[in-house]
Amino acid sequence: MFNGIVTLIGRVEDIQHDGDTDVIARISVQSEEFLSQIVIGSSIACSGVCLSVVEKGATHFVTNISKATLDITNLRFWTLGTKVNLEPALRAGAPLDGHMVQGHVDCIGEIHSITQVAGSHVMEICCDSSTSKYIAKKSSIALDGVSLTVNSTTPGLFSVNLIPYTWNNTTFQYNTVGDFVNIETDLIARYLEALLAHRTYGL
């Protein structure tokens, strides 16, 4: 479990294929404090995707990425040098500063526009209808692992506002129109839909 508050930005420094489908990625981290928080087996949100640490070094960690994860996330576009939002797993008793994020991405969305408004940036994201039904104005959403509030919604499109701190301390500063971001909708909406479906069928 995470709360969508990115701790720092890492960088992909090596990618290897493990068999025909899976990928092994080594991510460099310029923070001794961050690395001191993780051990082999720790969960880390990497641009919003919950991954497990399988190896740890003085300046990096290594993780395995399955084909199922690659198919549904923007991790399939990773190349050497790709910047990655990083957040360690939420610890019991820690403040929940963002919202509850599982690291289970629903889909990827394409950046439709980025507009600077005063000191902030407004980003519009296109997404498919199967995901947009869970997105409501003023609801919480995680984009590339960052907890944000939905500003507006129209069919297949929604917008978020990125304050200067968020822009300067996440990978959004490197994004351009046409890039893809990982989308995780508010889990409450998904559970509510499942409960209502059971109620409809009298279960």
Description:
With 203 residues, the chain is an alpha+beta fold. It folds into two domains: 6-86, Elongation Factor Tu (Ef-tu), domain 3; 105-192, Beta Barrel (Elongation Factor Tu (Ef-tu), domain 3), CATH 2.40.30. It is built from five helices and twelve strands. The protein has helices at 32-36, 67-72, 129-132, 164-168, 187-200, and strands at 8-18, 22-28, 43-46, 49-56, 60-65, 83-88, 107-117, 120-126, 140-143, 146-154, 157-162, 180-185. The strands form two sheets. It has a six-stranded antiparallel β-barrel with strand order 1-2-5-4-3-6. A hairpin with a 2-residue loop joins strand 7 and strand 8. The model has no long low-confidence stretch (mean pLDDT 91). Residues 1-99, 100-196 form the Lumazine-binding domain. It holds the Pfam family Lum_binding.
Quick rundown:
This protein has 203 residues and is an alpha+beta fold. Helices cover 17% and strands 42% of the residues. The protein folds into two domains: 6-86, Elongation Factor Tu (Ef-tu), domain 3 (Beta Barrel), CATH 2.40.30.20; 105-192, Beta Barrel (Elongation Factor Tu (Ef-tu), domain 3), CATH 2.40.30.20.
